[in-house]
Amino acid sequence: MTDTGPPPFPFHLPAPPDPAALPLPHPAHPADGVRLLRGAVYAVPDGSRPLAVDLWLPEHTTGLVPVVVFVHGGAWRTGLRDDLGPRFRHWQPGPFARLARAGFAVACPDYRLSGEARHPAQTDDLAACLAWLHTRATDLGLDAAQTVLWGESAGGHLAALTALTQPAGTVRGCVTWYAPTDLPSLAEDCPEGAYDARDPASFEALLLGGAPADRPEAARDASPVTHVGAEAPPFLILHGSDDALIPARQSIRLAGALRGAGHHPDLRLLAGGDHLWAGLSDEDVEDCFARTLGFVRRCTTTVED
Question: Is the whole model's pTM more than 0.90, yes or no?
């Protein structure tokens, strides 16, 4: 009798649990008046790690609360979902706790980094997070119809790109801090020799899956300015005038595209400001946060449903 080995055993991986049905994390209390649900899974992309979101919530509310979705920076390559940058790490209470105390929910999501997936995976992830927030709105006490996106650096790029590519009305406003907005124009905007659009190892190339000069359509599609239209939400755009990493001209381009489509973005160039708000006084950094909070309030209280 010939031994032919074990019979074939087709094995199909079971589907992961639906993130909309998973139990929410047990809340922590990092500051008076604030609940923190850290690490709620909002998506399980095929072939990737589960993606989680931290939720900073007001402790006591009388109704549903508007939502701020904060998107972290890190050149699309690294970063922590709850890190606003070195100028804010010493704040007590921290910026997200301050927003929760002001009556807003803050969602800080993971997204797939460029070492895991190329564009448009990152905006796909943020769209999935928005959908999850809508699905879990009742559980969390959210008014998800009043959502503002906010991001810094690469996170500002992703916030803007998401805000401009979601169906009209999904997002009530968008805040960008020192964000790239027009990838094909980076070489023109940077000082001579500071940026090479043909470099396959640049952060932009790693996001796109190839040098921007070699993937012009992908670079255009990954640029918020490409997607500005008549239904774009309100924008607050903050950038340091002396940013040595992402030129302020990138924010000027986004504001110009929005004006060209009939909008009135609030563009502020901060004199002497470098990337991550280096070069600004503590008072100026506080003002950036205060302007952001004020913009969120206007977007979530004056827009008609």
Answer: yes
